[in-house]
Amino acid sequence: MHMMNYKNRHLLFMEMGGIKLKSIIRTMILLGALAFVAVPVQAQDSNLYAGGGLGFFTLDSGVGTDTVAGGYASLGTDISENFGAEVRLGTTGTANTQAFGVNVNYTIDYFLSGLGKAQMEVMDDLRAYGLLGLTYAKASASAITPVPGVRASGTNTSLSFGVGFDYRIADTMTAGAEWVAYASDVSGFVGTIKIEF
């Protein structure tokens, strides 16, 4: 049953040729609006930062699941003490999934996320946060068995959500950890670092 879903999903991607240009533009506008909809009136009220995350991502190919290395680079702003926004660009390694004699390599070539962030300080220098937004991603799959060489790829936009924490290790630097479900078939648990400027 999983294989049928997997084949149908990627055949649909191939028939559509991926998401059309208009849909891509609409998605990018939504991501940008989500990330920066609450731009503060005064620049000094906003703390810009750059950072990234590196860790493990669980991928579901439709045939099975596997955990691989992955990561992202990020750019964001703390709009206020309790709210922020962030844009991420990331990728994952290649998962090898198999079930019932079907063996498939599956990877997220890239993902672009626009995330809103609700946050609160739980003690000195330690902050917890929740994330909610959208992710646009391109995935690729290739069959190893029973028909080697069959390849497919496609794009999708999904609801994303997660939780994490930051600990301030220097005046302009934090380190932390988080778990995020970028899509129903992609989630990541990573260590993070952010540098304010």
How do the strands line up in the largest sheet? 1-2-3-5-6-7-8-9
On the 0 to 100 scale, the average pLDDT is: 83
Return the CATH topology.
Porin
Q: What coarse outline follows from CA principal-axis ratios?
A: elongated
Q: What is the number of beta strands?
A: 9
Strand count, sense and closure of the main sheet?
Answer: 8 strands, antiparallel, barrel
* SSE string, helices as H and strands as E: HHEEEEEEEEE
Number of domains: 1
Figure out the total of helices.
2
Helix content: 10-25%
What does this structure look like?
- This protein has two helices and nine strands; from the N terminus they run H-H-E-E-E-E-E-E-E-E-E.
- By secondary structure, it is an alpha+beta fold.
- The chain has one domain (2-196): Porin (Beta Barrel), CATH 2.40.160.
- Strands 1-2-3-5-6-7-8-9 form an eight-stranded antiparallel beta barrel.
- The longest helix is centred in the N-terminal third of the chain and has 16 residues, at 21-36.
- The protein is elongated, with a radius of gyration of 18 Å.
Please sum up the structure shown.
By secondary structure, the protein is α+β, with helices and mostly antiparallel strands. It has helices at 2-16, 21-36, and strands spanning 47-60, 65-78, 83-92, 94-99, 102-123, 126-145, 151-170, 173-183, 186-196. It has one domain: Porin (Beta Barrel), CATH 2.40.160.
